[in-house]
């Protein structure tokens, strides 16, 4: 059963499947196989997880001293290469930096993502009510293994980062876009909770990619013409010859890679991938709405978050997006919202509409 409270992994299963059957060393292939096993167990228990979250939703939760008062609150936990969540608390808001780079990276990335939503959209954390941001580093499902965990995920309440195996993947906390992507799944849950399956699931993944890109653009003060529009460019080691995990422009993120093959993401509806794999293609078909955002943002120029980003954000908080939203429904709503948000700037709505037409979603 598809869930709005889905546990969302940064690295999709099809990547791990390719690595597990690649020509890489046995330890690296075992690391990918282990990551697939974690994903399998999550799928098996997703219904139970959703029921637990639903039950917990009606119960009062203990609050941190700053929760709900408009202040940023972060807390980082060290799993100590074990699978216990959360791990041991090692840095909370206001503490001094630690000597652990992964702890420090996680803390700062959570802060940058919070600051983006607050500064750009006036949103107080993921739920707009001061939800504390929690991150777990050095997570390892099997402490007996010699390799680190090859993924990062949002579990509906907190971020979890693996250290990578060192051959296929590096530390996941080294990438701001990984953190921003996974935290945005939390924003989706608290704005327009999109079912994690098929087109609505691909929109869920696309929102995570789109806002992660904007967080990086904002942090680096890059205009649309200056940004590289790549997701996951820093998670791979030197063994990887591609540009990253996903790209927003028309190009493939990787092609004919010895171990990963070719990026399967389509950029037009004529190439839409059908099937049940990857939760109905959530990480694959998200390439279509990603490309639409890119086309609209680059057509208008300037900063991605100022116009098209604002349209996407207002669309997500509009109350007009159903749980099982299709690409077409989302596209029509963005065009409508563009007219509402920028009534005196017709160019915004025109650019948004043309972008969706160019990817074959609107006629």
Supply database-style keywords.
363 residues, alpha/beta, Elastase, domain 1, Neutral Protease, domain 2, 2 domains, two-stranded antiparallel sheet, 10 helices, 8 strands, globular
In short:
By secondary structure, this protein is of the alpha/beta class. The protein is built from 10 helices and 8 strands.
Range of helix content: 40-55%
Identify low-pLDDT runs: 56-68
Order of helices and strands: EHHEEHEEEHHEEHHHHH
Please state the structural category: alpha/beta
Fold and architecture overview:
The chain is an alpha/beta fold. It has 2 domains: 8-45 and 67-191, Elastase, domain 1, CATH 3.10.170.10; 198-358, Neutral Protease Domain 2 (Neutral Protease, domain 2). The protein is 43% helix and 9% strand. The chain contains 10 helices and 8 strands. It has helices at 13-20, 26-57, 101-121, 176-191, 198-220, 277-281, 287-300, 308-316, 327-341, 346-358, and strands at residues 8-9, 74-82, 88-92, 133-139, 152-154, 159-161, 230-231, 246-247. Strands 1-5-6-4-2-3 form a 6-stranded mixed β-sheet. Strands 7-8 form a two-stranded antiparallel ribbon. Helix 3 crosses helix 5 (198-220), helix 5 (198-220) runs parallel beside helix 7 and helix 8 crosses helix 9. The longest helix is centred in the N-terminal third of the chain and has 32 residues, at 26-57. The model is unreliable at 56-68 (pLDDT under 50). GO terms for molecular function: metal ion binding; metalloendopeptidase activity. Residues 193-361 form the Peptidase M4 C-terminal domain. This is Peptidase M4 thermolysin. InterPro entries: Metalloprotease_M4, Peptidase_M4, Peptidase_M4/M1_CTD_sf, Peptidase_M4_C_domain, Peptidase_M4_domain.
């Amino acid at each position: 059963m598809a869930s709005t409270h889905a546990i969302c992994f940064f690295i999709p299963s099809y990547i791990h499947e390719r690595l597990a059957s690649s020509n890489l060393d046995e330890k690296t292939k075992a690391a990918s196989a282990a990551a697939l096993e974690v994903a399998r167990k999550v799928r098996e228990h997703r219904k139970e997880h959703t029921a637990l979250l639903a039950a917990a939703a009606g119960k009062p939760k203990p609050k941190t001293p700053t929760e709900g008062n408009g202040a940023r609150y972060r807390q980082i936990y060290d799993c100590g290469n074990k699978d216990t969540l959360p791990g041991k608390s090692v840095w909370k808001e206001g503490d001094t930096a630690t000597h652990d780079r992964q702890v420090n990276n996680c803390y700062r990335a959570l802060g940058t993502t919070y600051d983006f939503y607050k500064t750009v959209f006036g949103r107080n954390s993921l739920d707009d009510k001061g939800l504390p941001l929690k991150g777990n580093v050095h997570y390892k499902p099997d402490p007996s293994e010699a390799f680190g965990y090859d993924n990062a995920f949002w579990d509906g309440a907190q971020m979890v980062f693996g250290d990578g195996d060192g051959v296929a993947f590096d530390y996941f906390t080294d990438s701001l876009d990984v953190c921003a992507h996974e935290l945005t799944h939390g924003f989706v849950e608290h704005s327009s909770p999109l079912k994690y399956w098929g087109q609505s699931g691909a929109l869920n993944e696309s929102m995570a990619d789109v806002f992660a890109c904007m967080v990086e653009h904002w942090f680096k003060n890059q205009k649309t013409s200056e940004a590289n529009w790549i997701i996951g460019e820093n998670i791979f080691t030197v063994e990887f010859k591609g540009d990253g995990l996903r790209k927003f422009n028309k190009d493939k993120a990787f092609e004919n890679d010895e171990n990963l093959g070719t990026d399967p993401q389509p950029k037009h509806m004529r190439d839409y991938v059908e099937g049940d794999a990857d939760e109905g293609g959530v990480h694959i078909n998200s390439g279509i709405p990603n490309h639409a955002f890119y086309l609209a943002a680059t057509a208008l120029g300037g900063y991605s978050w100022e116009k098209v980003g604002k349209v996407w954000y207002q669309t997500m908080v509009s109350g007009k997006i159903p749980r099982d939203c299709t690409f077409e429904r989302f596209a029509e709503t963005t065009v409508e919202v563009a007219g509402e948000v920028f009534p005196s700037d017709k160019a915004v709505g025109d650019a948004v509409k043309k972008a969706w037409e160019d990817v074959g979603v609107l006629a």
